Every structure is written in C-alpha cells, then in structure tokens.
Design the sequence.
C-alpha cells in the first residue's frame, strides 16, 4: 500500500507496466483485492480524445487537475493529446518531465508567487491567464514585463447549465476584461480571452452565452487584436442521473457562436476539457468490508475516491455492478432486487459517509465487490492519505 500525503503529485518517472485482465470478474478472481483498485479502459480514453481531436474546431488541452495520475496521463497522451492545461508548477513539471514533446499552458488565473517566472524561464510557457490588475502586475513583474507572452483575460459567466459553477471565484466583467486586454497589448504581449462555463455543464447554450460575453470584452478592448479564444472546460461526463446532451451539440453550438466573434485571421480557438477526457476511462473496484444491517462499510470513501458523490447538489451517479465471490472462488455478478444502503468509508471520521444512499442488490454481503464505472474525473485527483488509506493499485481491463 502507498501512503501519500494529501495533494501529492506522483513523480514523473515511467510507470511500471500494468497487468491486463479481460473483465472485472477476472481481476477480482485473480487478486481478491482487500484495497481499492482503479481499472483503466484504453478504448474509452481513445474515444473521448477522438471526439475532441476530430470535432472540436481548434486546439484541445487536457485539464490535468481532473486526474493527474500518471497511468491516466499516459492514456490521455497515448490517445493523441499533446496540449495540457496546467494549474501549478507541480503539474507543469509532471507533464514536461513525462512528455517532453507536449505543450503546457498555465491557465490558472491566480498563481503562487514565483511560479509564473519558473514556468516561463525554465519551461518556456507562453500562455497565462489573469482576471484582475493585481495578478497582471505580478505576471509582468515575474516575466520581464510580459513581452512575448499570450495573456488571456478571463470573463465570468452566468450560472447556466453547469452542476458546479466556476465563476464566483474567477472571471471578470466584459468591460473590465476589455480594459485588461488593453493593458496586456500595451505591454507588448498578445491579448486573448477565456472563460469557464462551470463543470459538468448540461447545457450547450451556456457556451454560446459565454462566447457572447467574450465578444463584448473584445469590443470593449477596441483596437486590440485578439489572438485566441479559449472556451474552457465543462464538457460533461455521461453519468446516470444527468441528462447529458450529445457531444456534437456542444461543438456545433460553439462553432455557431464563434461565427459572431470578431475573428482575426489566424485567431486560435482552444478548449480545456478535464472531465470529458478522463471520466469514462477509469473504474473503481471497491470491496464491502462490513455489512451491518442496511449499512455498508467500503474500503474507499470520501477521503479516497468519492469526493464528488459527497457534493451537496450533485445529482450525477456512477454506473454500478456488484460481484460476489462464491465458495468455489469463482466470481459472479450479483443481480436481483435492489434497495438503498447507507455507505460509510473506511476511516474513523463520521464525515466519511455518503450523503445519499446507494441502490444495491438486497443480498449484497461482506466481501462482495462494487465496481463504479466512469469515475475518472475529480475522484482520485482529490484522494488523501487520511488514516493511512491512499488507493493506488491499477490494472487495465481490455474487455467490458
Ligand atoms: C481553468 C480550468 N480549466 C479547465 C477545467 C476543467 O473543467 P472540466 O473538468 O469541467 O472540463 C477547470 C476545472 O476546474 C478549470 O478550473
């Protein structure tokens, strides 16, 4: 078992090759794991990346924060992604160390003092984001005045169809963004615009609304050439419990909206999906360590992989399958009538409890396994080492 401090980003060295299994049942039968296992589904990573690389009309960056596990990054890279939205020097060093031919973009609007300087000088990053004068001053001070950089002003978007809003902390009005763009341009940097409609955005129209706000910022910056528009992340994962529109609705809406944007020749369009590139490719195999009447204790919890299941307004769910190990050692899927169970994680903290029950087979028992699919985004990225639990076992499932 690995015990890692909270927030630890793994080293950039090559990962040892993973074992392959044809199915979840085969993995469970072979390992009978006591600790949680993450499984990778390479075909799902490929499909997710292809959607963006073939259909998004610009550059696709992977938002590393959604899942920075090296095995996941290797899948993202193997599926053809070469641009990475990085939010800290640690993420930049992880990506640059692992994939020297990749390109990092520092898309966090507020940065740790000194990190912009290292990103620029040591790693050659050119793209930075700001939403206020103070951060722009910091950036200029750390990069010899910002000349040669491409600096994005971030516009705040209204809470539209996203499950998790990202504009009460970051982003500014179109008017103020226009003023920042003038400062950026006057300093000899290239001026660009960005926004984030919020994560797990269920309404493609939110992107059209946000492009309109970016257009107003471009108008407010009259005379400044806008060299790029980054439409952020927010593209949803296909979770049960959410009515997720088909991916092409998002791309079609964005294409139509940008036709209203004052595009200069050569203006680059970018996006920075996290969830949509990593959610489907990862599943979690977790074990029931105790059944106490209608309560189940699992070997993973909210300090491990279940951060999003604990969010108050979160209505999305993960597909579930339950496997039982028979006395013969064979593993079979447990089906039949389902009912709600209260779920506890393995730590000593009472908060390590899912706020909503999970529907599971009535006959579920201690030592059964629950597989949660589509769990790649913002799950293990947020795992901690609390109480000595830090899930970090991996395998590849070629079937399923
Ligand atoms: C600046 C930025 N870009 C991209 C993302 C990725 O968003 P998503 O995973 O919803 O695509 C986030 C998420 O927090 C973000 O803050």
Sequence:
């Amino acid at each position: 078992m690995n015990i890692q401090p909270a927030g630890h980003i793994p080293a950039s060295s090559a990962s040892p090759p993973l074992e392959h299994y044809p199915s979840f049942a085969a993995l469970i039968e072979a390992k009978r794991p006591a600790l949680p296992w993450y499984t990778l589904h390479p075909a799902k990573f490929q499909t997710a990346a292809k959607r963006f690389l073939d259909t998004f009309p610009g550059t696709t960056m992977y938002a590393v924060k959604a899942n920075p596990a090296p095995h996941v990054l290797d899948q993202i890279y193997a599926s053809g992604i070469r641009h990475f939205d990085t939010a800290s020097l640690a993420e930049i060093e992880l990506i640059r160390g692992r994939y020297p031919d990749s390109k990092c973009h520092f898309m966090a609007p507020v940065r740790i003092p000194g990190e912009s300087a290292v990103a620029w000088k040591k790693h050659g990053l050119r793209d930075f984001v700001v939403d206020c004068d103070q951060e722009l001053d910091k950036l200029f001070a750390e990069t010899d005045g910002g000349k040669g950089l491409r600096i994005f002003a971030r516009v705040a978007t209204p809470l539209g169809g996203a499950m998790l809003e990202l504009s009460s902390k970051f982003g500014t009005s179109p008017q103020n963004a226009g003023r920042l763009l003038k400062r950026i341009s006057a300093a000899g940097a290239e001026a660009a615009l960005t926004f984030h409609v919020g994560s797990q955005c269920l309404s493609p129209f939110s992107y059209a609304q946000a492009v309109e706000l970016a257009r107003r910022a471009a108008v407010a910056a009259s005379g400044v050439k806008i060299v790029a528009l980054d439409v952020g992340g927010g593209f949803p994962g296909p979770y049960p419990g959410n009515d997720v529109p088909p991916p092409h609705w998002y791309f079609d809406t964005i294409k139509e909206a940008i036709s209203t944007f004052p595009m200069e020749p050569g203006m680059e369009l970018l996006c920075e999906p996290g969830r949509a590139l990593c959610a489907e490719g990862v599943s979690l195999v977790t074990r029931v360590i105790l059944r106490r009447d209608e309560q189940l204790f699992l070997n993973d919890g909210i300090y491990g992989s279940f951060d999003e299941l604990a969010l108050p307004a979160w209505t999305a769910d993960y597909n579930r399958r339950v496997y039982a190990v028979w006395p013969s050692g064979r593993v079979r899927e447990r089906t039949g009538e389902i009912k709600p169970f209260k779920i506890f994680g393995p730590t000593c903290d009472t908060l390590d409890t899912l706020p909503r029950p999970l529907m599971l087979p009535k006959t579920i028992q201690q030592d059964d396994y629950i597989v949660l699919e589509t769990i790649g985004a913002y799950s293990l990225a947020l795992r901690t080492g609390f109480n000595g639990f830090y899930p970090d076992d991996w395998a590849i499932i070629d079937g399923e």
About this structure: The chain has ten helices and 20 strands. The domain at 42-278 is CATH 3.20.20.10 (TIM Barrel).
